[in-house]
Description:
Layout: H1 2-49, H2 52-68, H3 87-90, H4 92-115, H5 118-139
Amino acid sequence: MLSRIVLAASAALMLTGGVALAQDVIQTRKAGFDDYKKAMGEIKDAVGKGDLATVGPVAGRIDAFAATIPSLFPPGSDKGKTAAKELIWANFPDFTAKAQDLQASAKALQVAAASGDKATTAKAFGAMADSCKACHQRYRSE
């Protein structure tokens, strides 16, 4: 009887720990996407001012974040306060590919900014914004 109680208590602890872990990852990804949104604003302002030296490092933040996006959506993190659609987990390879597209576009933006050409940088920024929209349209509830 005691072993059943211990087993039941252990299972309950693992389940509540899993819920807490899912909530932690949701908070982590929200913070990451908040910084990402801030970075997009910083890049938009820098491109508008012709401050291309600022664009590369900020695009680097997006590049680094994009590399972590799939890991921020483990199974079970679709519950709680999140705008993530269940379709993410049903079509995780496509979701991962979209994160990789964002990462590639952030790298391309870094290269464009390093060129010193404002028009090329603005075009690369637009392409990166398009990769954001492609993912949000499919995988994010508004």
